[in-house]
Amino acid sequence: MLHSTNAEEATNTKKKDLKPSTLDYSFHDLSDVQELLTLHNQEATRASSIRLSNNHLTNLKGFKEAFRMVLAPSEEVLWIDLSFNKLKSLDELVESYPNLRVLYLHGNKIEHLSQLDSLSHLKELRNLTIHGNPVVDEPNYRFFILSRLPKLKHLDFSAITKQDRISIRILLKRQELHRKNQSL
After folding, report:
1. Is 26 within 8 Å of 57 (Cβ atoms)?
2. Architecture of 2-183 per CATH?
3. Per residue in 113-157, pLDDT tens?
4. Per-domain residue ranges of the chain
5. 71 with 94: CB under 8 angstroms?
6. Per the confidence metrics, is the pTM higher than 0.85?
């Protein structure tokens, strides 16, 4: 099933060789990423965005291989929606898509900040959602994310403010001073 939004259609009309570029596999009861291959229309355009929300994915094993078949080359993938699944970690996702701009992970089962540390590889990420995961209850969750993603503009559908940026710099300086004091 191939879907696109009006904004995507407007963008794509400027690029004559592209067709709608969002694949929507939401609400397909997928429990394994490999199941994508059975749903994907081989004649469909290889997309730069994919929706896999509201499925039953518990991990992303085989993600890279399956997505290679349905998505554009990894450097062209800009948007992935994995919200409302049962994911506990990001596995191989992050390093595979260096130019990813939007990543929706809300409503999953990510519990620890260490499971999000690999997000720092996403240097072009601008929009990230993680709310609805147990990890958001961790102390300094927001600062942890923002310190690893300096170009992020929205976290959990909230804009990153100038005050957020100032607070992050202060927190990072405190952490650095604390480390220096411990090493003395």
Report:
1. no
2. Alpha-Beta Horseshoe (3.80)
3. 999 988 999 999 999 999 999 999 998 899 899 999 989 999 999
4. 2-183
5. no
6. no
